[in-house]
Amino acid sequence: MTQSDDPVPTNVVGEQADRQPAGDADDNAATEPLATGAGSDRTGADAGADRQRDQRADEEADKETGEAEVEGPRRRARRERAERRAAQARATAIEEARREAKRRASGRLVNEPKPVARGVVRGLKMLLATVLLVIVGIGLALILYFTPAMSARNIVVVGTGVVTREEVLDAARVRPGTPLLQINTSQVADRVAAIRRVASARVQRQYPSALRITIVERVPVAVKDFPDGPHLFDRDGVDFATGPPPPALPYLDVADPGPNDPATKAALQVLTALRPEVAGQVGRIAAPSVASITLTLGDGRVVIWGTTDRTDEKAEKLAALLTQPGKTYDVSSPDLPTVK
């Protein structure tokens, strides 16, 4: 007998539909045709195997779904953190790209150094120029200090009268040919000023090869006799010479003449305050104390001066009084001068 080609009975198909889940039925409907019709090759055994596989797959899916429900929050947190980090990295990369594009647009590369400010460059140039000038100046100073080209080949002495040039040169002790920068002008001036008749001295370098020494000699304003002869005193009370006094030099009558003696300083202050026409008439000035100064004129008339207070006023009053006849002229009180 031959096998019948009739289609599968309707009750078999209905039984498969009852056993298969709704979702699986849909999937099977979408993926494979129903085992109906005359052209189907599936057997009943094959359909049963398919149902068993589907059941096992459903059980595994249900198991995984249960595990996912247990571990879901932790995995979700890790996933969210990873997503935040990735988003932050993307934002950083975008910002860096934006900055790089901005720098490139302004004509500078990312790693290109910033140009130095113009003021800084100018300051560095000035500093370098200053350093070079200092170095050059030091070099020139050293050359001038040691070179004989700038040496004292000529020594000029100015202001001599009674003091001779030889006295000045001997006191200066400057060796001809000494470089000018090696000469200590202050020390040379001090040595020259030590001469008794010299009141002050000044030493100057005159480049390229001269040294100038200028002196001011002491001028006698009074004389006093000593056992060894007359001693001359200048306006500061310095005893600077011994010898015959110049004509018409007044005699100084004090107990202990000297630059530190109050009576000497008071008497000389009066002498230097007198008008020239009056000072030439004074033959002697006596100062037993600073409060009792008297002058004796060459013709014998006496002037009572008193103290050194208001000396200039007294000198003016005396010049007017001497035009009047008399023997004693009292200007100790310049407000009430008298003539006797």
Task: Please explain how this structure is put together.
- It is a single chain.
- The protein is α/β, with parallel strands linked by helices and 340 residues long.
- It has 3 domains: 19-33 and 42-110, no CATH class; 148-217, membrane protein fhac (Ubiquitin-like (UB roll), Roll), CATH 3.10.20.310; 222-339, Cell division protein FtsQ/DivIB (Rossmann fold, 3-Layer(aba) Sandwich).
- It is 46% helix and 17% strand.
- It has helices spanning 10-19, 22-31, 44-105, 118-146, 165-172, 185-193, 262-273, 276-279, 311-321; strands at 154-158, 198-206, 210-217, 222-226, 229-233, 239-242, 251-253, 282-286, 293-297, 302-306, 328-330, 338-339.
- The chain has a 6-stranded mixed β-sheet with strand order 7-8-9-10-11-12, covered by helices on one side. The chain has a 3-stranded mixed β-sheet with strand order 1-3-2, covered by helices on one side.
- The N and C termini lie far apart (199 Å).
- Residues 1-43 have low confidence and may be disordered.
Keywords:
six-stranded mixed beta sheet, 3 domains, three-stranded mixed beta sheet, membrane, elongated, Ubiquitin-like (UB roll), 340 residues, alpha/beta, Rossmann fold
The CATH architecture of the largest domain can be named as: 3-Layer(aba) Sandwich
Number of helices: 9
State the helicity in percent bands: 40-55%
CATH class of the largest domain: Alpha Beta
- The portion of residues forming beta strands comes to 15-25%
Instruction: Classify the secondary structure makeup into a structural class.
Output: alpha/beta
- Enumerate the strands of the largest sheet in spatial order, edge to edge or round the barrel: 7-8-9-10-11-12
- Average pLDDT, rounded to a whole number, is 81
Largest sheet: 6 strands, mixed
CATH superfamily placement of the largest domain:
Cell division protein FtsQ/DivIB
Low-confidence stretches: 1-43
Give the strand tally: 12
Radius of gyration: 64 Å
Q: And the CATH topology of the largest domain?
A: Rossmann fold
SSE pattern, N- to C-terminal = HHHHEHHEEEEEEHHEEEHEE
Principal-axis shape: elongated
Q: What is the domain tally?
A: 3
Q: Give the termini separation.
A: 199 Å
